[in-house]
Amino acid sequence: MTIKILPARLANQIAAGEVVERPASVVKELVENSLDSGATRIDIDIEKGGAKLIRVRDNGKGIAKDELGLALSRHATSKIHSLDDLEAIMSLGFRGEALASISSVARLTLTSRPATQDQAWSAYSEGREMQVKLQPTAHPIGTSVEVLDLFFNTPARRKFLRTEKTEFTHIDELLKRIALSRFDVTINLRHNGKMIKQYRAAKTQVQEEKRIAAVCGNPFVRNMLKIELEHQGLKLHGWITTPEGARQQSDLQYCYVNGRMMRDKLINHAIRQSYETSLRPEQFATYVLFIEIDPHQVDVNVHPAKHEVRFHQARLVHDFIYQALSDALVQSAQIDKPDINASAFHTEPVTPDIPTPVTADTNPVSESVYRAVEKVPAYPGQQGYEEKRQAEKERTQVREAAAKSDWVESRPVPRQKAKSEERYGEPAPSKQEVRAYKELLETPVLSQKAPSIPSELEPVPSALAEPAETIEALGKAVCVTQGQYLLMGDKQGARVISMAKAEWLRVNGQLALNGGGLKSQPLLVPLSLKLDPQQIEASQQHHATLMQFGIELKSRNSSSLMIMGVPQPLRQQNLQQLIPDLLSYAALISENDQALPPQALSDWLTNQITQVKSDYTLSEAIQVIAEIEQLWQGNLPLDDRAFVRPVDFSATIAAMKL
């Protein structure tokens, strides 16, 4: 056979073999073109699963009449014009093959009108040489592409189409992925004239979460953690779920690189590795993640369907994703589950008949009970409340202004609330949360008595330490009053818990050495600090104590040092301010020729980083109480009147009987 140039239609059909695999492939190309045109509303009409009709209409910029003919030609595009453009692609499309390939295997009509034209024009190609013809028509500003009878001229390809339901399912799944990538765009999907999906543009966080729930389901939203991390031009943000949100199939895994849908092996490996200690082999993580990177550092032109990319610094990207997700999962757990299932509010005598303590593996309480609550304003410690809140406000402004490389945010989303029988003005917890908390309070007594709490852990002024009967159990959580006080009760009476003090005890428990030391977690990128000579000297003098708390500092020279690692409770803090303040405190201790007591350092750190919400829901308060139970393991200071006080309703009840 002699060498010949292929006819235009045949060449386009060959190209269509890569571009047009099934109706969902057509929808993908057309919707991505709409997004590239700046559309804020996209309407997709499907008939017979896409085999009969695919129509995509948008309100984008439109195409001028003079360019309509070129739009249906091969290798014609407005998105790149040079090799430099190809090496820094930000648009979803760039090859200029989609419309020409689709028109070679279907009857395609392109209608468009830019804002600069009063008249819309339609373009379609026909004949062996794919000649383009134009005709005037009526159309609003934007573009419509109508694809009729897909694969009408390639019976072999049409024969391999699946059932109408299967093909539409692929289209539906594709639009879910696109809806998650562009919250600012309204997307409507109709099938056989019936509205199937309607994704309204999301402008607020609540609306974004509604769209996530519409795509991923409510269980995903209840267990999701928000991720946000940035380092040296590499940014990762989105949502992952705690291990409770894992599924038996990988159908809720959405990842995007510079807004482009991805199924990249390197990214998947980093995500799997971050979950490897949290999930069983048959479980799959669920996530919606967005990676933003300098377009010069990634090649998107390595896969026919653009599902994979090639990173120039693959190891950096892999470790960046792994570190970010690993930190988020650790922060969501806050603490390791203990070997014993003790309730802090049980002070009954130890019964030696019980052979072994109840292990965490037999604990029926859900993992979500132990999850940390959302980051909130500072704890009002020994300073005045308003002064402390102002200090935290200034610290937050510094945190937002500083270019940090450590963790920015990872917060559990509040669970949905269930109805309750008796609640007055407060959202009620779910039945699962109430049952879990009740089971915590009814935990069997331990066979071994836990060590008594050191006196230094009771930062209560003597004036508050009034003689009082020991409270054996706080009972059942009833409601939150005045936003920061939890009312609990049983047959013996009612008690009020201060959530501010509970938060202090939670952080102090996380920082407790308990005969060992806190594990240092290396920073993704060490932080460099310029310090005074006194601070440098203090870091060297108290190096051993700081290492006990997992604070790893490395001297660079006489005026600066590097923060190499910190314990988990400090991961979300503004280390560029906290560590210098800590060293100044240590230097002050050194001036008085005193050693730095570990308990004093623990209390100082607790005062600095404890944060208290201004208004707690009942479920949030229960989560805090459940966590401090696990941390203190039966040694909570129940005689501390700043933490818990009995409430006497007898006078009120007597007055009501008059």
From TrEMBL:
Pfam families, per the entry: DNA_mis_repair, HATPase_c_3, MutL_C
NCBIfam families, per the entry: mutl, PRK00095.1-1
Function, in words: This protein is involved in the repair of mismatches in DNA. It is required for dam-dependent methyl-directed DNA mismatch repair. May act as a 'molecular matchmaker', a protein that promotes the formation of a stable complex between two or more DNA-binding proteins in an ATP-dependent manner without itself being part of a final effector complex.
Gene3D superfamilies named among the record's database cross-references: 3.30.230.10, Histidine kinase-like ATPase, C-terminal domain, MutL, C-terminal domain, dimerisation subdomain, MutL, C-terminal domain, regulatory subdomain
Name of the protein in question: DNA mismatch repair protein MutL
Annotated organism of origin: Vibrio coralliilyticus
Domain DNA mismatch repair protein S5: 212-330
Gene Ontology MF term list: ATP binding; ATP hydrolysis activity; ATP-dependent DNA damage sensor activity; endonuclease activity; mismatched DNA binding
GN (gene name): mutL
